[in-house]
Write a structure and sequence with these properties.
444 residues, alpha/beta, TIM Barrel, eight-stranded parallel barrel, three-stranded mixed β-sheet, 13 strands, 41% helix, 15% strand, globular, binds 5-hydroxymethyl-3,4-dihydroxypiperidine
Length: 444
């Protein structure tokens, strides 16, 4: 494969999914602690209490990253670990952890990339409305100020929010993620204050970490009609508006998409829509988490009058997500064309498969190897077609707590035995290691 010589090869994780140590060293409760401890919310009653014990094993994990030749590691900071009540008193043990992790990465020659919010809102803030309470914008700004002062001299890339669509709509509208609400108006409010929080945080990052890159990460998916009927075209446009443009337009144009405002209007009452212009603070890059494409067709008998319909030979991951690498190339090119110029990073891409057990010190995850081959070829073709893609972070370094699905889905290129905490490289990790080594040795 031929990637540019300065292409950045990394892996990503998130605090609640791997750290564990959820009730120790002064960490405050987060919405996922509360949600996962609520019976019936997470598969098998799993929680992130222990997860991969990365909080205690981070040195071993950085050594693994080094063995793989990673050039960058994207982790997230747990807000309640550093400010247990969301505002006010600081937990120095929490700050120390991120200091040590950052220094360990730098010592290993790996660029630290930090996400400020990957879904673990302090529960104390949620008790006051969480992302639906306008106060959260200033609270996030203060937290950003703290972390960028603390680590600003060492972090290479700052990401304000991970997938705000999921925080707002899975969390406040569909009830499948913490905090588990089913309230359309609350979800649109949450989306609004997430966007404002991003916009207010950007100048703070610039002030405290002027040499770092700063941006935001969205989960983007193409929505395409399954047939050439007019209804299906409309459904795809609606899916795109809700899933992609609701965040892309404010971030790059400072306004909500007009067609979607009309449709969502009843749920938007009380939101000062024009205030979203603050979200259009200039970014150095856009992070894209790419997982799937949606193909929709109208069906009056299905909920919402629509259902998914994929080609008969379509292949899927264990999440039920279609494996269609061309979709990622299409999305990169579309964002470049419609919202650029801006540097792009794939800040997550990966797959859950029912992997075999470790045998002779390796996990033979051939499906994930094929998945990565396909998506990296798509990344390469997008670059060749003009997309300014600057790096790729595989999701995920380690098998981890997959939110409402608990430990039932494994996304890691490194296998984790959750009973013994033993880490075992999967074949996909070895493939990725060799690819990085070859690409660094012989850049295009
Ligand atoms: O595990 C998640 C991650 O936290 C956010 N992006 C999607 C991944 C897979 O579902």
């Amino acid at each position: 494969m031929g990637f540019p010589s300065d292409f950045l090869w990394g892996a990503a994780t998130a605090s609640y999914q791997i750290e564990g140590a959820a009730q120790t060293h002064g960490r405050g409760e987060c919405i996922w602690t509360r949600f996962s401890h609520t019976p019936g919310k997470v598969q098998n009653g799993d929680t992130g209490d222990a997860a991969c014990e990365h909080y205690f094993r981070y040195q071993e994990d950085v050594a693994l990253m080094r063995e793989l030749g990673l050039q960058a590691y994207r982790f997230s900071i747990s807000w309640p670990r550093v400010i247990p009540a969301g505002t006010g008193k600081i937990n120095t043990a929490g700050l120390d952890f991120y200091d040590r992790l950052t220094d360990e990465l730098l010592k290993a020659g790996i660029q630290p990339w930090a996400t400020l919010y990957h879904w673990d809102l302090p529960q104390v803030l949620e008790d006051k409305g969480g992302w639906t309470n306008p106060d959260v914008v200033k609270q996030f700004a203060d937290y950003t100020d703290l972390m960028t002062r603390q680590l600003g001299d060492r972090i290479h890339g700052w990401i304000t929010l991970n997938e705000p669509w999921c925080s707002a709509f899975l969390g406040y509208m569909m009830g499948v993620h913490a905090p588990g609400l089913k309230d359309d108006a609350a979800a649109y409010k949450a989306a609004h204050y997430l966007l404002l929080a991003h916009g207010e945080a950007m100048p703070i990052i610039r002030r405290n970490a002027p040499q770092a890159k700063a941006g935001i990460t969205l989960n983007l998916s193409p929505h395409v009609p399954a047939t050439d009927s007019e209804e299906d075209a409309k459904l795809a446009q609606l899916g795109d508006g809700f899933g992609n443009r609701w965040f892309l337009d404010p971030l790059f144009k400072g306004v909500y998409p007009a067609d979607m405002v009309e449709i969502a209007r009843p749920a938007l009452e009380g939101i000062d829509l024009a205030a979203v212009k603050v979200a259009a603070a200039p970014n150095d890059f856009l992070g894209i988490n790419y997982y799937m494409r949606f193909m929709v067709t109208s069906d009056p008998t299905a909920p919402g009058g629509r259902r998914e319909q994929f080609p008969p030979d379509a292949k899927f991951t264990e999440m039920g997500w279609e494996i269609y690498p061309q979709g990622m190339a299409d999305m990169l090119l579309r964002v470049h064309k419609e919202y650029g110029p801006i540097d792009l990073y794939i800040t997550e891409n990966g797959a859950a498969f029912p992997d075999p057990a470790p045998t002779n010190g390796v996990v033979e995850d051939s499906q994930r190897v094929d998945f990565l081959k396909g998506y990296l070829a798509a990344a390469e073709s997008a670059i060749a077609a003009g997309a300014p893609l600057k790096g790729y972070f595989v999701w995920s370094l380690l098998d981890n707590f997959e939110w409402a699905l608990g430990y039932s889905r494994r996304f890691g290129v490194v296998h984790v035995d959750f009973k013994t905490q033993q880490r075992t490289l999967k074949r996909s990790a070895l493939y990725y290691r060799d690819l990085i080594a070859a690409s660094v040795a012989q850049p295009a």
